[in-house]
Specification:
- By secondary structure, the protein is α+β, with helices and mostly antiparallel strands.
- It contains 6 helices and 8 strands, in the order αααββββββαβαβα.
- An 8-stranded mixed β-sheet has the order 3-2-1-8-4-5-6-7, with helices on both faces.
- Helix 4 links the parallel strand 6 and strand 7.
- Helix 2 packs across helix 3.
Length: about 230
């Protein structure tokens, strides 16, 4: 296990930390909300809380936020560049797992073979070219909610079933085997933008995850209420 990831798995023991830049998670969430007015501010607030925990051991260059409470026919993926002047890099469609739901996702799993999406915080873990072309590995660091991501081959990749035209014709995007698949036309550029030292945050108002995630509520706290 590589060194930042060994440390990330012990985040539950760490106290709350400010972002490397000295900006609090609440201040960053407000900045990101201005950059992405279509995003739910409460979801961004949760994402920046998780980001703050990760930044304790791995300064992140980008933050990607997926809001699975939104239908697949909407652009529910936001990718932000961080640093001294955070900005929105991508606002895109993203697929969910075949067994997570139709247009609306409402079921999530960490189990191999479930063909469902997983919730929680991930860090990017290297690119490769495989069955789905250029892809980006995700390592789940949110305990039993997503720590099987590697064994499940949960990756970001391009897919022909992710497009506005597909959504119009089918009433939903196509669905993956659990991967957050994106448009083929943007996949390579998006993956390159977030390949190194990046955080991906996948949200749904699931009470078990909101209460049980060790990356929400102060790097180990579990008193988080649903934001929707």
């Amino acid at each position: 296990m590589s060194s930042p990831f060994r440390y990330l798995l012990a985040l539950v023991l760490l106290p709350p930390a400010a972002a490397a830049s000295g900006v609090t998670s609440a201040q960053l969430a407000e900045t990101l909300s201005r950059a992405a007015p279509a995003a739910n501010p409460k979801v961004l607030a949760l994402a920046t809380q998780a980001l703050t925990c990760v930044q304790r051991s791995m300064p992140a260059q980008t933050l990607s936020v997926i809001d699975y409470s939104m239908p697949s026919t909407t652009q529910r993926l936001w990718v932000f560049e961080l640093g001294s002047k955070p900005r929105l890099l991508f606002h895109e469609w993203v697929a969910h797992g075949r067994n997570s739901g139709d247009n609306l996702a409402n079921r999530f799993s960490n189990q191999p073979g479930s063909l469902m999406s997983s919730l929680g915080t991930f860090v990017t873990d290297g690119t490769y070219t495989g069955h789905n072309g250029y892809s980006l590995r995700l390592k789940g660091i949110d305990g039993h909610f997503n720590d099987q991501a590697e064994s499940r081959a949960i990756v970001i990749h391009g897919a022909s079933y992710v497009s506005e035209a597909f959504a119009r014709s089918q009433g939903r995007l196509g669905r993956s085997w659990g991967c957050p698949a994106v448009r083929t036309g943007v996949a390579h550029k998006l993956i390159d933008a977030i390949a190194d030292h990046s955080v991906v945050f996948a949200y749904y108002p699931d009470p078990g995850w909101l209460q049980g995630s060790r990356l929400l509520g102060g790097c180990g706290g579990n008193e988080v209420s649903s934001s929707r």
